[in-house]
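Hey, can you fold this?
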Amino acid sequence: MTTLTTPRYDRAGDLELSFRGRAVVRPLYLAPAEARLFRRWLEIMRGTAVPYALGGAYAHYALTGIWRDSKDLDVFVRPQDVRVVLDAFDEAGFDTELRDAHWLAKVHSPPHLLDILFAVRHMSRLRISDDWLESGLAARFLGVPTRMLGPEETLATKAYVANRDRYDGADILHIIHALQGEVDWRRTADLLEGDEEILLWHLILFGFVYPMHRDWLPRELLRRAFERVQTGPGDVAGRAFRGMVLDPVSFRVDVAERGYRDAGAHPPILDRSGRPL
């Protein structure tokens, strides 16, 4: 385990997965009640028979070995399965809500949350689909068989998270570092639907932070992304202003007062009942 702080709790069990032909075992430092709750949540997920993958802090931990205490459990599902999942948790006695019809539902058990994500944050055009989930890694969390988001999918969920109070760039760099650059970069770019510039940003940052490991960077992707950045404005006018994708608060002034069109704005995926529109 890699950590800068002493975990608050004893080892409650393990996160086990098979990755690139080797078995990985990560200890889980959870309070007993927390471990029971997370185990129950995963059992409920399994009982729905809905395809899903575990992501968030625990996917990052699985890939990098960097532990951080988290009161959230993140699962990724297809939009058409959200209502089934919420119904299962309602029947189990939990409080649920559709927090944002573009990408997020929640299960509450204070102080813990189960986040049910069906699109990439701020990017509802990037919906979780079968190919996101089928490429997941076989895993066991506290003894419960589950699936874990793969590295490319994990990178895609973090690429646009860059607002004032939350930035996942360090997570991205640590995943690249842990894998020594052995990432399917073409697939990563495809998952982001061609937004190679956003990858360029993180790759340049990796080269700055880890200059001794620049040979781990994908040179062909860097070349293509630089070419896109140099494209004349006439070729990218259809994409318009994309600041709101990164931080809807800090860049709101550009849309509200400066006349830019929010190219990241998309209609909600679900209706108010949690069913696909």
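Oh, and this one too while you're at it.
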Amino acid sequence: MTDTKNFITDCIKAHIEVLGPVATLAIARKITSLKIADNGDVLAVAGDANGAAEELKNAYFSFAGEAAQAIMRTLAQKHPPLP
């Protein structure tokens, strides 16, 4: 699994813990290039994975604001910057 795909999976799973699975997965599944399992695992990324990650982050920021930003700060400590 690529670093970006791992990041996206971790991002989704972290949001599930805070926002719950229904909202989190609904938001993630709006990103048409992502195929997401019910547990939050990324099954496939079509096209630009970095673009999909950015689109997902923006969607969570738009929906959850400060909570999403706090989650992203925590993930940034775990994952090195993506290219």
